Amino acid sequence: MKKIAILLICVTAFSYANLHAQSERFSKNQFINNGDTLNYRLLFPDADTLRKYPLVIFLHGSGERGSDNEAQLKWGVQNFVTDKNMVEHTCFVIAPQCPLNEGWANFADRTRNQMQPTPSKPMQLLIGLIRESITKLPVDTNRIYITGLSMGGYGTYDAIERYPNMFAAAVPVCGGGDVSKAPIIAHIPIWIFHGAEDPAVNILNSVDMNAALMKAGAHPGLTIYPETGHFSWLAAYSDEHMMEWLFRQHK
To answer: Which of 105, 119, 169, 194 would be a feasible disulfide site paired with 189, CB 3.0-4.6 Å?
Structure first.
């Protein structure tokens, strides 16, 4: 237990050290629709804007909810948005922040991840933001990707299950979705990540979704890290093979 506590302290310290560095790379923005506001950060590629570039949507976990438009950069982004990755895989990155006491996904039954008919308010705003970004930024609409961790992993499934024709690929990390919707998303390239000893999100969420997708005729990726708890995104977003795979995907 002492070793685990020391590891968590070190990981948290590293995360906060990188939070400031990431903040410098992302501009602060707000999307407003019908009086509702979604805070988000935007990474604009340092490249020739005469071309069109992929768009990556990054969804944070429950602990980063709020209104500071800062906390969503705490986990995962620093592993994904590295200098090396941004040179090799130049893209736009949008990292929205979910308000307190709300969520990306909207489930009628959390034990079975059964989706409600309508999306949550943050998800509605996110989809509006994506559609607006397509009209205002040089985005390659055939290469819109979505990923998220924990609550954001649930949100990743929620987004692709509600809007299956919007995304070219998805990387849900330690999340869960409605397995009954697997046939709807069987055409989308998906790579699932989870820690075998995750105490916060049951690994069966990922195992069951993988099985449902395969039954529907899909060929998803499934990576389970042994002896890993909830912090599976550290390895997932540092996986160069995943990055290469993700940016190869087209609609």
So the answer is: 169
pTM: 0.90
The alpha carbon of residue 128 and the mean position of all alpha carbons in its chain are separated, in whole angstroms, by 17
> For position 7, what pLDDT does the model report?
42
Helix locations, the chain, DSSP H: 2-25, 77-80, 83-88, 121-136, 151-162, 204-215, 233-236, 240-248
Residue type, 74: K
Decide: 238 and 223 in contact? Cβ < 8 Å.
no
pLDDT at 116 over 70: yes
CATH number at residue 147: 3.40.50.1820
Residue 184's Cβ-count burial label (10 Å; 0-12, 13-18, 19+) is: middle
CA 40/CA 248 separation, integer angstroms: 26
Q: Which of 92, 102, 39 is nearest to 69 (CA)?
A: 39
* Tens of pLDDT, residues 17-61: 444 455 678 999 999 999 999 999 999 988 776 789 999 999 999
DSSP 168: S
Question: Under a CB-based contact definition with an 8 Å cutoff, are residues 93 and 26 in contact?
Answer: yes
Q: How many CB atoms lie within 10 A of CB 235?
A: 16
Q: How far apart are CA 55 and CA 44, in angstroms?
A: 10
d(CA 24, CA 99): 22
- Dist CA 198 CA 229 (whole Å): 4
For position 220, what pLDDT does the model report?
A: 98
Question: Based on the structure, what is the number of domains in the chain?
Answer: 1
Give the domain range for residue 108: 2-248
